[in-house]
Amino acid sequence: MMKALYSGVSGMRSHQTKMDVIGNNIANVNTYGYKSQRTTFRDVYYQQLKNPGGASVDRGGTNAAQVGYGAQIGSVDTIHTISGYSPTNKSTDIYINGEGFLTVETSTGQRLYTRLGALGFDSAGNLVDVNGSRVYGWNDGDFAINAEGVITVDEADLAAINIAPTDPDVEYTNITINTDGLITAVYNNKDDDSDPLNDTIVDLGVIAVASIQNQDALVHEGNSYYRESKNTGEITYNIPGSKGSGTGALVTGGLEMSNVDLANEFSDMIITQRGYQANTKIISVVDQMLEELVNLKR
Asked: Which UniProt keywords are given for this protein, alphabetically ordered (predicted)?
């Protein structure tokens, strides 16, 4: 009888955790770049009441008799399906049209990964996200473009992107992020009208997209960030959409929507609520049985 009581308690705890996950998913239904999570259950421990027996010449075999002790959380998985494009009309917002993550460096020097491409340039020329973390890629001089327009980079040169001109008289206008991550701008020397580069388009940097071998092993850090774990495997940094990289090209002027399916979440919420109620009923019935047992002495 007490086994059933503990089974009901374990079931309530498991369903409570699942409801927490569902609530978080629904709360982030309009969070750009958010990836929904799911909860799976598994059974716990089984007490062996009778061991199985093999068949013999004069009798048949018997099966084991076991009593379980309830349920527990098996896993909380992140669903990394690619969601839709949401236009924002902001030229520095980017959507990764395929696999891959942007790489950022926080103020503490920690390297993290994100699908949220809400970017901008600060007063120092750093490419930063909405949290002020610097975005990684290759700066001018760390990449080359051949005659066919193909960008070549060395992963060892990966660094935080900064497009600030070295000459204080030079300014960049009409800054554009291209599908291959190349950042271009119109060059203007305010102090020298004869500068041959005036009103020409110059290449300033390239945004890197990280390809993660096992993205399901990424660990949530909050603020739309993930960090690598011991199970993420190899992480490589590529030109967005380049052949063989496995990463998607960039689409500017928009962000990735949340992949939360509200219909599915509400259905799971109803099922979870009923599961929780069923487990509370176990406890109520066991309590009644214990009361009857105590009353036997009267």
From this structure: Bacterial flagellum, Cell projection, Cilium, Flagellum
Tokens of 274: 């009923």
DSSP 86-151: EE---TTBEEEESS-EEEEE-TTS-EEEES--BEEE-TTSBEEETTSPEEEEEETTSEEE-TT--E
Alpha-carbon distances, residue 119 vs 132, 177, 212 (angstroms): 9, 11, 21
- pTM for the model stands at 0.89
Predicted confidence band at 1 (pLDDT cuts at 50, 70, 90)? low
Nearest-10 Cα torsion for 112, 117, 120, 122: -10
CA dihedral 28, 32, 33, 36 (to 10 degrees): 20
Degrees to nearest 5, angle at CA 220 with 217 and 226 = 75
Structure-block tokens of residue 211: 């390809």
